Amino acid sequence: MGELRKDYILDRWVIMASERAKRPHQFKQHNEERDFTDKCFFCPGREDQTTPTRYTVDNDDGSWRIRVMENKFPAVKPEGKHAIETHNSFYTFSDAFGEHEIIVETDHHEKQLWDVEVEHFKEVLQTYNKRIRALQHKEGIKYVQVFKNHGKDAGTSVKHSHSQVIAYNKVPEVVQQECNAVKAYSSSHEGNCPYCKIIENEKSGERKCFENENFIAFTPYASRFPFEIWIFPKQHRIYFPEDNLLDDLAGIMHQTLKKLKEINASFNYVLHYSPSDEDNLHFHIEVLPRIAKWAGFEFNGTVINIMPPENSAKFYRGEK
Amino acid sequence: MGELRKDYILDRWVIMASERAKRPHQFKQHNEERDFTDKCFFCPGREDQTTPTRYTVDNDDGSWRIRVMENKFPAVKPEGKHAIETHNSFYTFSDAFGEHEIIVETDHHEKQLWDVEVEHFKEVLQTYNKRIRALQHKEGIKYVQVFKNHGKDAGTSVKHSHSQVIAYNKVPEVVQQECNAVKAYSSSHEGNCPYCKIIENEKSGERKCFENENFIAFTPYASRFPFEIWIFPKQHRIYFPEDNLLDDLAGIMHQTLKKLKEINASFNYVLHYSPSDEDNLHFHIEVLPRIAKWAGFEFNGTVINIMPPENSAKFYRGEK
């Protein structure tokens, strides 16, 4: 059984994932991408070699084109104690409690998410929403974190295109910091959402990349990564957007990833939304290309980025 | 001229390093380690192809064995405005102000820091102290960050063994968080230092790795990285330790890096100390091996670590 642990005195949390420590070729080989087409566990026909199916989107012939299952090497498990305790002042912990799922995004081994049709991308997004709804009210769960790792520089160990879901007993630190900052801003600005104001500012500025009826994509002012890009619904939404908005969200995500395909960038993306009705966090997706490595300086806080977001935005807009 | 920028609403800072953007082969090739023995700019005899020497430790024959110079591609420069301003609520910035130095740790191209003698390691530490003292009182400087990146997974672009110094107009976020947490703890614990108490706890526990008269090394309870290890003076010190303690600091650092050499680990290390007399931050060095990659989940806060610190400590102690 793994543990969730907090730093002695900082608000910094780590899941000690003992299950994952059992992975073969750990450490030095850990980051190598595995691409064994003839024995990929995420391909159709090998379902009996994985954990059981939890959800699928199916083709007319009954075969699946999107499939959800438990991660075979879960960081968290629905076992043990989810209540967080502190012993002897400095040792704050719980069991590594929760659910860790894999969303296989396509039945095609060779297709990456930037290769699929917009309509299929929409189904992937709908699957995110389904999994959030399926997990968020389970006992002990405080947040359902949906994210994707693409490419070996982004921490992927399996090439077959997939997203991950980690539902656990804590609100992720960055999401909590955002909620706190939103609350602080709102209280001094007549209850307004800061992100609504930021969107208004960036909409007409040099960092705007894409826009459609319901969504906007821009490179953030203090981008931590070259080509970092954030995608927001233009109208205030605190949860995953309703189904009638997903054509536009799929469209703008598709536009974004098509550009990243041009430079074959490894990337992560991470969903941000309100942990509860009381929080007022504007839903958004942060796409984090992993072209530059963080070094010692970055791990003490301030990040060095060699690509100003104004230049990244030109790249997304197709300008020289 | 680059800029220091703060996130719209979070306490998260980025240096937009326009000078560094001019580096050849940027982005995709950016992380490749360069090891051109026959044209290494850090080797003796090529001083005329680098920025001017700022400090050296010399051999009897007048040649240097440690050399400090300005980084040719500095993230910050001693030009422009160091005062931080906020415009239009969300845009907080200054010029990317400060000094960015390289410490070439040895005149031997092939020697890494884990290869040098303890006595030489002590001279490297003394050089750190000299550079902190030389830069910390310059106008606009709030903190002198000393760090080392070793190996390509740790963000090094030059193989010749070196450390870096970035003196800039801000206290690094993590150092500031530590100062805040120390202050909060002290105020409810009769002015005591939490790290003194943590050292007392870890001294006799399963996470202790090395100890000598003046220093202790242990793997932290909530380690974010496999083999993460922290080194503290056992007596409370808020600044870089005095010269008579550096034999012991060099000794314990040497022991630590020798173990990392066994697994050929890329690593960063970062010095933490008090930004001012008012802060009471216990000096320490955090060594962060870079064996596992952070992925999407980690960038929202909680880190997954597949190596419990209790196991890492066994590795350092040489137990099976």
Question: Top keywords for this entry?
Answer:
320 residues; 10-stranded antiparallel β-sheet; homodimer; 6 helices; alpha+beta; 4-stranded antiparallel β-sheet; globular
Outline of chain A, from the CA principal axes?
globular
Strand order across the largest sheet of chain A = 3-4-7-9-8-13-14-12-11-10
Instruction: Please bin the fraction of helical residues of chain A.
Output: 10-25%
Q: What's the assembly state of these chains?
A: homodimer
Order of helical and strand elements of chain A: EEHEEEEEHEEHHEEEHEEEH
Number of strands of chain A: 15
Low-confidence stretches of chain A: 22-26
Summarize the main sheet of chain A: 10 strands, antiparallel
- Over the alpha carbons, how many angstroms does the gyration radius of chain A reach? 20 Å
Describe this structure in words.
With 320 residues, the first copy, chain A, is of the alpha+beta class. Helices cover 23% and strands 25% of the residues of chain A. The first copy, chain A, has helices at residues 18-21, 118-135, 173-188, 194-203, 246-262, 309-317; strands at 3-6, 13-16, 53-58, 64-70, 85-87, 91-95, 98-104, 143-150, 162-168, 208-211, 215-218, 229-233, 267-272, 284-289, 303-305. In chain A, the strands form two sheets. A ten-stranded antiparallel beta sheet of chain A has the order 3-4-7-9-8-13-14-12-11-10. In chain A, a hairpin with a 6-residue loop joins β1 and β2 (13-16). In chain A, α2 crosses α5 (246-262). Residues 22-26 of chain A have low confidence and may be disordered. At the A-B interface, β1, β2, α1, β8 and β9 of A face β1, β2, α1, β8 and β9 of B. β15 (303-305) of chain A pairs parallel with β2 of chain B.
